[in-house]
Amino acid sequence: MPRASAIITSAYPPSTVTPDVTGLDTIPTLAWLAASDGSADFFNQRWLDYTGLTLTQARDWGWTAALHPDERIGLLDYWRSLLASGKRGEIEGRLRHHGGAYRWFLFRAEPLCDEKGKVVRWYGTNTDVEDLKRAEYLLAAEKHALEMIADGASLNEILNHVCTSMDLLVAPSMTTILLMDPGGKRLWHTAGPRVPREWVPIISPLPVALEAGLCGTAAFLKERIVVPDVATDPNWPDRLRPIAIRNGIRAAWSEPIVTRDRQVLGTFALYSPESRVPTDADLALIEGAGRIALIAIERQRSQEALRTALEEIRESERELRQIVDTIPGFVCTLSAAGDVEHLNRQTLEYFGKTAEELKNWTTSDAVHADDLPRVIEAWGHAVKTGEAYVMEFRQRRADGAYRWFQSRALPARDQEGRVNRWYTLLTDIDDRKRAEEALGSREQSLRLMVDSIPGFIATMTAEGELEVANRQSLKYFGKTIDELKKLGH
Question: Which of 22, 17, 30 lies closest to 5 in space, CA to CA?
Fold first, then answer.
C-alpha cells in the first residue's frame, strides 16, 4: 500500500506547487495539511491508521466524520474562526479510533503565509492527550468528593457522586457501589444511577460467597475479580449470562472496598458493553474510586456513632458509659465550663494516659504544640458562646506519633436553653489528610507534566480570559502569568 506522502504528490497537477510533506509520516503524532480555504488535502499515515479513513475519504471536509458528535460543531466553528483570522490556534476535542472508541486530542493549526502575509496553506497536528485528560478528571472527582465529605454530605450523595463522575469518564460503561450489611453476609446496591433497573434486583441483595457473582466473589476473596467476557467466563454464573447480555453487560470487574484491618465494607464495580480486558487506566480508575468510597464510608460510620451516643445520653448516664466504651471512636463529656468529666476507653488507650492526666490537656503534650494555641482559642470561644465546635488538629498517640483528628463538640441544654454539658467525638482523619496531601502532590505532578510538554499550553475561561499558562509559554514571552493576563484586557 503506498504511503500517504506518495499519494499526495500525484494529487496535484504539474502547474501547482506540491506542499512539502517530507518526514510527516515519520513524526510521532497525527499530522495534516489544508488549503487556505480550510479544505484538507493531506493526512499522514499515523492519522489514517488511527481513524481508519482513507486519504480519499478524509480529504476536503470528510475528516469531520471522525470528530465526536458532541464537539463537532464547536470544533468546526473554531476552525472557521482561524480561517477568517489567519492566526494559529489550538483546541481540544475527541477523535474516533478506527475501533470505534474516542480519545481526547489537542488540535493545533499553524498558517503558512506568502511574502504579502496571505495564508497559502495550513499545517496541523493532533496530539493524544487522553491520559492527561483522564488524570485531570480523576483528580477533580477526588477533590470534589473530599470536599463533600468535609461539608458533611450524606453517604449516598457522596457515593452517587463517585459513580456519576466515573460514569462520565468511562461511558458507555457504567459503575456501581454495593455496601456490606451489618452482618457481613450480603451486599446491597447503594449507588450507580446508570445501572439498568432489571439488573438491580440481581445484585441487591447479593450473597458474599464464592461463585456468588462478580461482586459477591470479590467481597468473599477480598481481591479484585475481572470477567473479560460474561458469555464464557467461569466467574460469571450461567443463569445470569442472558440477563447480563440483555442489559448491555459484556465484561465487568469488581474491586472490594477493604479497611486497613481487612474488613470488607463493600465493592466498586464497572460494567462494560463490550468484551475486553481492563487496561492499566481502567484498574487505576476503580482503585481510585474505591479509595474515595472507603474514606466516605468510614466517615459515615463515625458520624453514626456520634448520633447513637447522643441519643443514648438522653436516656441514661449509666447506659451512656457502657455505650461510649464500645464506640469505634474517641468520646468525651465535659462540663458546661469545658472541663473534662468522662473519657471512653478508646481515648485513654490511644493517649496512654489516665483521665486525671488528660484533664490538663491544655498544658500537656496531648495536642501538637503547633496546633494547641488555636485549639484553646476555638474551644474557649465555643464554651463562651455555646456554639457547636468543629476543629481539625494533631494529637499525640501513646507511642509518640501524632495523628490528625476531627473534633466535633455539641452542647446539651436544659429546658431553659442553658448549656449544661458538652459531648465531643474525636474522629481519626489522618488517612483523609494523607489523601488530600497525595491529591495535592498529584496536582503538582500534573503541573510538572504540563510544564515539560514541548509546546505552549494555556487554559482560558469560557469568556476567553487567560487562567494558566505552562512554563514554556512564560519563558517564551518573558512575562509572568499576571503580566500575560493584563495583555488580554
Answer: 22
Query: For residue 431, what is the DSSP state?
Result: H
Q: Cα separation of 183 and 142, whole Å?
A: 30
pTM exceeds 0.85 for this model: no
> How many other C-beta atoms are found inside a 10 Å radius of the C-beta of residue 98?
12
Strands 402-413 and 419-428: antiparallel
How many residues make up the chain in this entry? Answer: 489
Of the CA atoms within 13 Å of residue 99, those in its CB half-sphere come to 5
CATH 3.30.479.10 assigned to domain 316-432? The reply is: no
Q: Is the pLDDT of residue 172 over 90?
A: no
Rounded alpha-carbon distances, angstroms, from residue 263 to 7, 44, 248, 412, 439: 63, 54, 32, 35, 25
**CATH architecture of the domain with residue range 133-302:** 2-Layer Sandwich (3.30)
Average pLDDT, the chain: 85
Q: How many CA atoms lie within 13 A of 122 on its CB side?
A: 27
Whether 134 and 281 have beta carbons less than 8 Å apart is answered as yes
Element (H, E) at 121: strand 119-128
pLDDT in tens, 23-54: 788 888 999 999 999 999 999 999 999 999 99
Query: What is the topology classification, in CATH, of domain 4-128?
Result: Beta-Lactamase (3.30.450)
Per-domain boundaries in the chain: 4-128, 133-302, 316-432, 434-487
CA 195, CA 188: separation in Å to the nearest integer?
A: 13
Residue 415, judged by CB atoms within 10 A of its CB (0-12, 13-18, 19+), counts as exposed
The alpha carbon of 187 is separated from its chain's Cα centroid by a whole number of angstroms, namely 24
Q: 297, 179 in Cβ contact below 8 A?
A: yes
pLDDT in tens, 415-449: 888 999 999 988 888 888 887 777 766 666 566 66
User: 11 pLDDT band (50/70/90 cuts)?
Assistant: very low
Residue 141 CB: number of other CB atoms within 10 A? 21
- Three-state SS at 25: coil
